[in-house]
Every structure is written in structure tokens, then in C-alpha cells.
Design brief:
Number of domains: 2
Keywords: Aminotransferase, Pyridoxal phosphate, Transferase
Number of helices: 16
Enzyme class: transferase
Bound molecules: pyridoxal-5'-phosphate
Family: Belongs to the class-I pyridoxal-phosphate-dependent aminotransferase family. Alanine aminotransferase subfamily.
CATH architecture of the largest domain: 3-Layer(aba) Sandwich
Domain Aminotransferase class I/classII large: 162-526
Structural class: alpha/beta
Catalytic activity: L-alanine + 2-oxoglutarate = pyruvate + L-glutamate
Number of strands: 21
Radius of gyration: 25 Å
Strand order of the largest sheet: 9-15-14-13-12-10-11
């Protein structure tokens, strides 16, 4: 099957060349209710239609005319789909894809009194802890309160250790106001706190000048990918990403017009990473692109595995042999539930391996959105970049300065993450109690979800060692696959769509993350609180049983 993007000009719709293919998938982008939608249709094309056409025959001899979705006034706009950056049209981000949009519509339908077999939507599609009822950590919120409203420093309601930290941050701000721009890489005091945190974690030196504060991990990841040269000897840069992967990576690679080199994680061995597969992936890409980077997500999203130290060593050796920058996405480092698993930072392992690996280029990412803080909306993150030559660091700096600075709220959140209350300080006990409660509840939810889903007919589930997701494999019955095909949907999307419509549970089909051909998965978060998770699993079980009975 050949994929064809429909381009619209002012009045006519044009199809790309369809010569030589008898099936086409048509995808078009349009805006509805301010939400970008993409419609897909799979058509059989008769032999006669090997030219540009706007009307053609589809299965069962029905003639379909594709409708140009532009209203007349839109056709006069200077920016059209066929003259903007095509990478924007190409990129996709499944976590907020069509099912997420449909979940929003269903919520509105429920509000307006439309009857459904459920009374609320369960949003298990995105790793947003507080949206699913997690309570914020008091210490962090107090620090935000005091830095944003310094008059509260006089209030007896705030503990002295938080006041001291807030004063320190305010002293570092221009005009003692959190509303001022900071240095482009963030407040020096917070960067120093991050460096100390990394030093304590790895028992290794960390130079605070290598630490850059960002508005969530996302902008840092995008900036580092954008650092790569667009064209070397006529070849695009290649970025190695795991499959399945967090779709920020595939979306960014598409947005920047780079080449994704997917390496499969091995589901049968708990989503481990086989060095032979890394070699297979790089060999298969041949001369198509110039491999420059390997991305590793540890603990894994969506797969929930924690890499062993041995596995990390193998990846480092592979990166060395193939001259790759390592981007270590370590945002879930505090989220480990399996007592036998342990988080090893790439930095620490590289250091311990000694020469020549200890001088390899590495960027490691961290976030305030994950862990036990779950402050997704505040947008706090950082990255540490090491062993990069000074000239490249200077160029990176220049690019960072052009973005002014990351949000100061995010910088304060990172300060709270890396400089928590210490033993004997007034906030310590409450902080530890809240932190442990969140982490032990996440562990309980991970185990509950794993145990429940493992009992479903046709499911294969790996234990959730870390992060916030489960990614089960489902054997979808042939009859269901046929029904999916009739609706022009991949089987996993069909399953997830049926689940949403029948139960209000919103998950993401595995195809949004990548999966081995002819397999079906989905990703669900483990984030609903225990009572809600029990309701969710109950609804899910009933749905699955009915689905299997119907299609078996
Ligand atoms: C693996 C991974 N990296 C990065 C991010 C981005 O996080 P942030 O909210 O800090 O931008 C996420 C968000 O879900 C993620 O799962």
C-alpha cells in the first residue's frame, strides 16, 4: 500500500500520483472545533485511475468524491496546506490523537444529557498524575506560593525551611521578582542545586554549568535534536528511537525532517534491549541517512521496563562504535516499583566503564512532571549535557539565549525537586510522608493493573517495573480484525475506539507508539486512584469479555 497525502489548492483537491497501486490510504488534515483532526480513508483504486483525480471508485463500486473541507473564505488565505512546512502535516502525536479528541466530545455529550452506558470518561491516555487525582506535594506548592507572593514570607502559616529557600530564590531573581527573566539556562542557584542532586545520586562530580533548566523536559529534548545538522553529504540525520517509543520523539523527528531509525525492544524478555537488534536497525537503514543519535527511555514509556546495568553498558558500547550522541530520557527515574530493579544513570555507568566510554557525549533529561511531584502543567525540567566540545556548547548557548528563559514557576518546581527538606528541618516529615504515599500508591496501582490485565483472555502483559504505564499485547480475534478493516481502522484502534464508546475509558492504540508488524497493543496509564482504577478495571473486564464473545 502506498501512502498519499492529499494537497488542496484553492479550489481543487489533488491526489498524488497513484500509478501502479491498487490501494491508497488518503489522509487529510482539517480543523473542527479548534481541534486538528486527521481523517484517514483506505480506498481500492481501479486500474483507470492512474492520474490526478478528485473523484474515484472505491470498493463495492461506490464513487467517492473527496470534499474539499475549505470554506470559500479560507481558500483566499495565503497559508494553505500545500505551502506550509510539510513536516507539520506529516508529524503525529498519538497521546493526544483522535481518541483523545473523541473523549472530550463524549464528556460534552454526557454534560448535555446524552445517554451513555457510563457516566464519566476515564482518561487513561496521558501521564498526567494530578488530572487523575494525585495531590500536589505541600512543600513544592508552599515554595511556589512564597516565591510568587513574597508578602506571605511574613505569614506564620509557612515553615521556616520553605521561607529560607524562597528567600534564596528571590534574592537570585532580578529585582527580587519571580516575574523577571532569568538567565537563559535558568537561575544559577537552581542549576547549582541540580548539580548537587546529580552528584549525590551518582557519587560523581557535576558541573552546574552543564545543567540547563527548561520548561518541562520536552523543549530540552527538541532543542538537542534540533542541534543536529540537517544534511551531511546529502543525507538526513538519523535518530535511533526505541519501538515502542514515547511519540514526542517520532513527532520531533518528523517536524525537523529527520529520519527515524527504530530499534525494537524485546517484549518476550520484559522489553529488554538486545544489542543485536540495535545493529540490525542501523544496518537496515543503510545509506538512507546518517545515524547521529540514540535515544533511550529508562524507565520506559510506554513499556514500563527498567534497564539493567549490563544492558546500559551494551548500549553505551554500541553508541561508541557508531559515533552516536546518547540522549538518555530519565524522567521516570524516581518511578521504580520492582524491588529487584534499580535505576542506573547513563552518566554513572559511562563513568564506571572508564576510557574511552567515560568521555562520550551524553545528554540526560529530567522533569517535574513525573516522579512523585506530577506537576505536568507547571512545566519544569532540566538536562545535563556532558563531554561536548566547547565550540558546540557555545553554539548551543547561543540558541538557548534566543529563547530568553524557561518559566520561573518551572524553575521553582525543579528547585523543590532537587533541594527537598532535610532531616530535622520543619517540613521534612510531611514531605517524606507525602512522597512515600504517592510512590507506594503508584506501586500498588502498577501491581493491581498488571495482575488484573494478565487474567484477560488473549492478553500478554509484562510486569510494570517502573514509569506510569502498561503496554499489553492483545490477540485480536480474526472477526474483530475484519470488522476493523471494514471501518478502515487498524485493529488496535478499533479495539480502543470500541472501549471508549462502550465504557468511557480512553487509552492509546499501540500503533501510536510503534509495535512489531501484525501485533496489537495499547497503552494505558496506571494513574487513576485506587477506587477509580477498580471501577476502570471492572468496566474494562466486562467490555473485553463481551468483545471476545462477539468476535471469537
Ligand atoms: C519519556 C518521556 N519523556 C519526556 C516527557 C515530557 O515531559 P515534560 O512534561 O517534562 O515535558 C514525557 C511525558 O510524558 C515522557 O513520558
Amino acid at each position: 500500500m502506498q501512502k498519499i497525502r492529499i494537497l488542496y489548492n484553492n479550489s481543487n483537491m489533488m491526489l498524488g500520483t497513484i500509478a501502479g497501486c491498487n490501494k491508497i490510504q488518503v489522509s487529510s488534515l482539517f480543523l473542527k472545533n479548534n481541534v486538528i483532526r486527521r481523517s484517514y480513508s483506505l480506498f481500492n483504486v481501479s486500474e483507470k485511475q492512474h492520474q490526478n483525480v478528485s473523484s474515484f471508485t472505491i470498493r463495492r463500486n461506490i464513487t467517492a468524491t473527496c470534499i474539499n473541507p475549505y470554506a470559500a473564505e479560507d481558500q483566499r488565505k495565503f497559508l494553505q496546506l500545500n505551502n506550509i512546512n510539510p513536516n507539520f502535516v506529516e508529524m503525529e502525536y498519538a497521546v493526544r490523537g483522535p481518541l483523545f479528541v473523541r473523549a472530550g466530545e463524549i464528556e460534552k455529550e454526557l454534560k448535555s444529557g446524552v445517554w451513555k452506558p457510563f457516566d464519566y470518561v476515564i482518561r487513561a491516555n496521558i501521564g498526567d498524575c494530578q488530572a487523575m487525582g494525585q495531590r500536589p506535594i505541600t512543600f513544592l506548592r508552599q515554595l511556589l506560593n512564597l516565591t510568587f507572593a513574597p508578602e506571605l514570607l511574613e505569614s506564620p502559616d509557612f515553615p521556616d525551611d520553605v521561607k529560607d529557600r524562597a528567600e534564596e530564590i528571590l534574592d537570585a531573581c532580578q529585582g527580587m521578582s519571580i516575574g523577571s527573566y532569568t538567565d537563559s539556562a535558568g537561575l544559577e542557584i537552581v542549576r547549582r542545586q541540580v548539580a548537587k542532586y546529580i552528584e549525590n545520586r551518582d557519587c560523581l562530580a557535576c558541573d552546574w554549568r552543564n545543567v540547563f533548566l527548561t520548561s518541562g523536559a520536552t523543549p530540552g529534548i527538541k532543542r538537542i535534536i534540533s542541534l543536529l545538522k540537517c544534511d551531511i553529504d546529502g543525507k538526513k540525520p538519523g535518530v535511533m528511537v526505541p519501538i515502542p517509543q514515547y511519540p514526542l520523539y517520532s513527532a520531533t523527528i518528523a517536524e525537523y525532517g529527520m529520519e527515524k531509525i527504530g530499534y525494537y525492544l524485546e517484549e518476550e524478555t520484559g522489553w529488554s534491549l538486545n544489542p543485536e537488534e540495535l545493529k540490525r536497525a542501523i544496518d537496515d537503514c543503510g545509506t538512507k541517512c546518517m545515524p547521529r543519535v540514540i535515544v533511550v527511555i529508562n524507565p520506559g514509556n510506554p513499556t514500563g521496563q527498567v534497564l539493567t546495568r549490563n544492558n546500559i553498558e551494551e548500549i553505551i558500547k554500541f553508541a561508541y562504535t557508531n559515533k552516536l550522541l546518547i540522549m538518555a530520557d530519565e524522567v521516570y527515574q524516581p518511578n521504580i516499583y520492582d524491588e529487584k530493579a534499580r535505576f542506573y544513570s547513563f552518566k554513572k555507568v559511562m563513568h564506571d566503564m572508564g576510557s574511552p566510554y567515560d568521555s562520550m557525549e551524553l545528554v540526560s533529561f529530567m522533569s517535574a512532571s513525573k516522579g512523585f511531584l506530577g506537576e505536568c502543567g507547571i512545566r519544569g525540567g532540566y538536562y545535563e549535557i556532558i563531554n561536548v566540545c566547547p565550540e558546540v556548547m557555545a553554539a548551543l548557548w547561543k540558541s538557548i539565549t534566543a529563547s530568553l528563559c524557561s518559566t520561573t514557576a518551572g524553575q521553582v518546581a525543579i528547585s523543590a525537586l532537587v533541594n527537598p527538606p532535610e532531616q530535622f528541618e520543619p517540613s521534612y516529615e510531611q514531605y517524606m510522608c507525602e512522597r512515600d504515599e504517592v510512590l507506594s500508591s503508584l506501586k500498588e496501582r502498577a501491581e493491581f493493573m498488571y495482575e488484573t490485565l494478565s487474567k484477560f483472555e488473549g492478553y500478554q502483559v509484562n510486569p510494570i517495573q517502573g514509569a506510569m504505564y502498561v503496554f499489553p499485547k492483545i490477540d485480536i480475534p480474526v472477526k474483530a480484525a475484519v470488522a476493523a478493516k471494514e471501518r478502515n481502522m487498524p485493529a488496535d484502534t478499533f479495539y480502543a475506539t470500541e472501549l471508549l464508546e462502550k465504557t468511557g475509558i480512553c487509552i492509546v492504540p499501540g500503533s501510536g507508539f510503534g509495535q512489531k508488524p501484525f501485533t496489537n497493543h495499547f497503552r494505558s496509564t496506571i494513574l487513576p486512584q485506587i477506587p477509580a482504577l477498580k471501577v476502570m478495571m471492572d468496566r474494562f473486564k466486562k467490555f473485553h469479555t463481551t468483545f471476545m464473545n462477539k468476535y471469537k
